[in-house]
Design a protein that fits this description.
Blueprint (H helix, E strand, L loop, with lengths): L1 E11 L12 E12 L2 E7 H7 L4 E12 L1 E7 L13 H13 L5 H17 L2 E7 L4 H14 L2 E5 L1 E2 L12 H15 L5 E7 L7 H13 L4 E6 L3 H10 L6 H7 L7 E5 L5 H10 L2 E4 L1 H6 L7 H6 L3 E4 L11 H14 L6 H15 L17 E4 L5 H7 L5 H11 L5 E6 L2 E2 L3
Parallel strand pairs: 1-4, 5-6, 6-7, 7-9, 8-9, 9-10, 10-11, 11-12, 12-13
Antiparallel strand pairs: 1-2, 2-3, 4-14, 14-15, 15-16
Helix pairs in contact: 3-4, 4-5, 5-6, 12-15, 13-15, 14-15
Length: about 425
Amino acid sequence: MTIIYRARLLDFTDEPMDGEGSSAVRYVEDGGLAVAGAMIIARGEFADVRKAHQDAEIVDHRPHLIMPGFIDTHLHFPQMQVVGSYAGALLEWLNKYTFVEEQKFRDLSHAERIARCFFDELTNHGTTTAVAYCSVHKESAEAFFAESERRNMRSAGGKVMMDRNAPPGLLDTAQSGYDNTKALIERWHGRGRQVYAISPRFAITSTPEQLEASGALAREHPDCLVQTHLSENHAEIAYACELYPDARDYADIYARYGLLGPKSLFGHSIHLSEREAGAMAESGSVAVFCPTSNLFLGSGLFDMARLRGAGVRVSVATDIGGGTSYSMLRTLDEAYKVLNLQGQHYHPLRSFYQMTLGNARALSMEDKIGTLEVGSEADFVVLDARATSAMALRMETVTTLSEELFLLQTMGDDRAVAQTYLAGVGWKA
């Protein structure tokens, strides 16, 4: 059955560097989005779409705004119950809270319960694709993928690989990490909408043997993503370089094991040297900007202009649970502030591009998600800029699309998400 969703439509064909007049912005005031099964089959003026699909059911979301679903490129599924835990900095936070919490995920029933809560929060906040770290336990990845599959959600994830500098209950070995990851790839990667992300946590918690095993997996499965952490905190950088004294710098640790590349996502990447930025750009690797986490843990300010100027690909993410909100709206609000502090003005159209098509491009999935293009998977959100009384009052003075988007970004959260659709099915709780 075909359904036409009537509302204002907004998506992008490229990054709108020149603001509201950009040809990269596709906006339809009275739009129709036709969906058959899990796919978008038509888009445009409502009257035209309706004429071409006269037997379709109509779902009227006016006066709201339909956009592609939000994409979150870095978050931690086992960290839901440590969000907002007080600590001075990254390594203290990991040892005091995160490593304690993640040990619970050896229990499959606990992992399954948290997986249900995790995907509820994502869909309530308008996120339709997420790239997540599971715990070291194979069970956590099984629970993650099973719940994602139940919802027919496009997700990427992987069990973390870590064989040192963590509690015994969170350690695998180079061989078991390789074996378990390979088994999970064979079971889940490409199954429905599931994508596997090879996930050595970071250099501090992996021996050279484990990073070699991670690189072997990346070579054997080049269509999988790779995710890890890089240059989040000065103490982390110093410790990583101490553990790998032959490396030129932190990024070179990963390069030596073949982990840089266009499918590789490097969380944080705040304190990169010019050489590291050049290596990231040359390899096509992605630097993942996690503004709420970087502020919460006092890690530093992500210099987007410098990295983009060096040719580094960039995405933006919540980084739950170092991050403090599941909302990509709240995340981009903090990103705006981080960049503004550095004199880098980030137009709201660029923000909304980034969390849709921009992040899809970072994942090399722009042919599937990130737009309302015909042939794309029907992942989209319905946004209400009058969701709260304060927002409604402010909307009385809004006169442009950019102003509305900036209001959604600045004052919006899950309440501004009227509905979330995964492969054409509504999942807003």
